Amino acid sequence: MAMKKGRRQFLKGAVAMAAAAGVAGTRRRQALAETEGNERFLIILCGLGGYSIQDAFMAVRVSEAASPAELNCFPDEFIEEIGPFRAVSMAPGTEGASGYPSFQAEFLRRHASETTVWTQRASSVNHLNAQTRCLNGDAAWAGRTLMEAVAAERGRGLALPNVNMAGSGFAVPGTDPSIPAYARPIGITDPRLFALGTHAYEGLRPTWTPQEVSWSRRFRTQVEAGRDFNRRHRNSRRLETWLEARSRALDFEAQSLISKLSVVGESESWPLTEYGIDPSADLAALEAAFPKLEQDPTEAQAALAFLLVKHRASSVVTIAPPAQGLRGPDGEIVIFNSVFDAAHNIHRPSQDFHWSRLLEVADGLIGLLKSTPYGDQGESLWDRTVLYMPSEFGRVQVRYGPGGNFGTAHDFPGVQIAVSPLIRGGRIFGDIERSQGRLIGFEPTASNAIDPTRPGISEKEGFSAMLELMGISRAGSGLPPADFLSKA
Amino acid sequence: MPTARLDAPWGLVALLVLGSSGCTSESRPASGRNELPNARPVPSREMGPVERGHPQSIVDMGIVEDTDMGIRPPDLGPPPPDLGPLPPAASRPLQFKRFDQLREELGRILDLPAASVCVELGRYSCTDDAHRVVLGGAKAIGANIYWGDSVPGPTTPVAFERVVLSACAQRAQLEVEMPPDNRAFLVAAELVDGGLDPRSTGAMEAVHRLFRGGLLREANSVELEAAVQIYDEISAVNRLDPAMTWFQAICAGVLSSTEFAFY
Predict the structure, then answer these.
(1) C-beta separation of B100 from B148 below 8 A
(2) Among candidate residues A19, A33, A12, the one with its CA nearest the CA of residue A247
């Protein structure tokens, strides 16, 4: 009798497992069909540490400053105007120059018409708080992050809707319990290793065959059914999330993300073929777009961000340089310690260097997305993407003497930047009072008129504008209207 | 209805003014600024050691006192009336085993060095490097992830299973390569040409050992029968090493189950 019951239960388990895989696949296809042709992707490239827009697109000339020796301003000839923006390019050997060729002008020549800068006031000058708040609008919508809000609506049915490779406050999950489990962030600390974790057994030594794993999973189904553990703990949200994720995993395992999302090529450090893993078919394109992919984790993150979007694995990807300083094989600086925040000690070189690096990574991403067709109507993936480049706060613009060596503190007034064909590009919303280097706010709806009473819109308004741009319904959110980013 | 809003500086001023006015002074205890009515003085380093005899608890100071040990000091009078049995302890939310718990437990259960439980591409630790954050870990140095996430992410069960599959395959290989005395599970099972009798006491004992190690219980009759079924299926298609394949399947089935993954 026990034998018969056992067989029956075993078969039931096998059927349940096959059904779970089938249901996950069907759910994904249904969800993808719903969004087909209406997709939007969000890539967030964080300016970690607090960038100073007065060292880039809103730079001040010496001739404009009231007290040039006491304000962060540049010799007139170092500043080029491109559309409404400015680009700084310091002559080599100038005091404060990082020595890294400036990419600001080149970036603007290529993308100024799709670039928007808006003044926004941070509510904190503590890194962790300000980073968290610039991505959740200072907990404007029940504590959900921008990424979670977008993934909840645009990521349904995708394998990895919300991937986050950043750190510190940019990686803190939201606190809104109503956000569906699939929209929560997937934390990645090494983009070169992440793909391996999308498959339960490919690339393992000793090897497992699909049939062997199937036997193991069927036995697991039996263990779980027999003990009733899952039913007894059915009110556990974590268990529910686990089981849901497990059923979805069967589907994305079948998509071979382990190969599709691989950002490294075969080498002594990455013996992929020895472990039976195919490198990504896009590897050559990735290496061309990101020549420092092996040295700079930001470029490896950007490469993975592209692959995640290209293969429709994610709707939102967040990337950021690591805060720890890095040097290349020849001793050259790859990342300043604390990135933009190295400005505490050496404002100008660190801002000069990291503005160019930020924009180079952005340009590489845009190029890859532009070269990838979307649908059959002549669109590219870039036509569907918003590249958001936030920074937690701005920096004090005072310097004590005319030289290029000075340090700056955090400051509440700052800006945010987004680049996209979907945006009202070629615009600066808000302004700068150049004689003092002081940022000025604006009205985030209708007229977008200058608002001299504040240095920028609030985090909440910026959050609302980004959601509007991404086409996310804000019904019932209580968020203020802010539609300045969206094309009419 | 209009709402009042105090900007920060005025709010501060208002608080200071209110704080010194009579409307709040009456509610303050007369004896001291921080002292609540009936409050015991809170011991501190400056005040010296806790006075013995007071029913101080662990919760108060983290200091174990007589009352915490079930010993009643003699000067507290008669014991309180018996209120019957204690209610069940409040259930705690389930938690999944994080990267380090998984690594250590698999090493212990399967008798493997923890560092070799799962290594990606022969170089990168699955638990400590490759999948650490996905498996609920923090990584402050190098990644600025200061807190592990207690909620499983979309790839957490896959990464968890990957680590388990790696460990179980290693153990299975050792089980069939080792002489019986050096095995950890198939100690009493007779291996002939890579196969075994799944109904034998030795094979059943191996299953029980896996359950005891991973789930702290014996396998029940349905689970034992399922293990036999699996073996029959395996041996029908794998004539070279069905015992090894069977063991690793049973091992991974047990150790990737929710009953093992959660506590």
Answers:
(1) no
(2) A19
CB contact under 8 A, B258 and A243: yes
Does A186 sit within 8 Å of B155, measured CB to CB? yes
Query: B74 pLDDT band (50/70/90 cuts)?
Result: low
Question: Encoding tokens for residue A382?
Answer: 């870039």
> Counting runs of H as helices and runs of E as strands, what totals does chain B give?
10, 2
- Whether A229 and B145 lie within 8 Å, measured CB to CB: no
Contacts of A324 in chain B (CB under 8 A): 141-142
State how far residue B97 is from chain A, nearest Cα, in angstroms. Answer: 12
Averaged pLDDT, A428-434: 98
What is the reported pLDDT for B141? 87
Which of A83, A148, A151, A42 lies closest to A423, judged by CA?
A42
From A187, A208, A275, residue closest to B145, measured CB to CB: A187
Cβ within 8 Å, pair B154-A173: no
A377, A414 contact by CB (below 8 A): no
Tokens of A465: 């504008």
Q: Could you report the per-residue pLDDT of A158-171, keeping only the tens digit for each?
A: 999 999 999 999 99
- ipTM summary value: 0.87
Task: For residue A201, give the nearest of A253, A271, A246 by alpha carbon.
Answer: A253
- Which among A224, A226, A323 has CB closest to B258? A224
Rounded to an integer, the average pLDDT of B134-141 is: 94
- B133, B147 contact by CB (below 8 A): no
Contact at CB, B149 and A168, closer than 8 angstroms: no
Which residue of B lies nearest to A277 if distances are taken between CA atoms? B121
Contact B225 A238 (CB under 8 A): no
DSSP-derived 3-state class of residue A104: helix
Residues 6+ apart with CB under 8 A from A403: A95, A96
Tell the residue number behind the tokens 């532009």, with chain if given.
A370
Q: What is the pLDDT of residues B237-254, one digit of tens each?
A: 988 899 999 999 999 999
* Nearest Cβ partner for A200 among B139, B162, B245: B162
C-alpha–C-alpha distance, residues A313 and A186, integer Å: 12
pLDDT digits (tens, 9 = 90+) for A451-476: 999 999 999 999 999 999 999 999 99
A327 SS3 class: strand
A-B contacts at Cβ under 8 angstroms? 229
User: Cα B165 vs. chain centroid, distance in angstroms?
Assistant: 20
3-state DSSP of A343-406 = HHHHHHHHHHHHHHHHHHHHHHHHHHHHCCEECCCCEEHHHHEEEEECCCCEECCECCCCCCCC
Best mutation target, A158, A189, A221, A262, to test chain B (most B CBs within 10 A): A189
Closest CA to A470 of A387, A361, A367, A355: A387
Chain A residues inside the 8 Å CB shell of B8: none
**Inter-chain touch A223–B253, beta carbons under 8 Å:** yes
The C-alpha of A130 sits at a distance from chain B's nearest C-alpha, in angstroms, of: 15
Strand-strand pairing, A41-45 and A316-319: parallel
DSSP labels, A30-91: HHHHHHTT---EEEEE--TT---GGGTTT--BGGG-SSGGGB--B-GGGEEEETTEEEE-PP
Strand order in the sheet with A41-45: A186-187, A162-164, A316-319, A41-45, A385-389, A413-419, A115-121, A427-429
Could you give the residue ranges of the DSSP H alpha helices within chain B?
Answer: 8-20, 22-25, 58-61, 99-110, 140-143, 156-177, 201-215, 221-237, 242-255, 258-261
* C-alpha to C-alpha distance for A389 and A414, rounded to whole angstroms: 12
Q: How far apart, in whole angstroms, are the C-alpha atoms of residue A238 and residue A224? A: 16
Degrees (nearest 5) of the Cα angle A280, A286, A291?
135
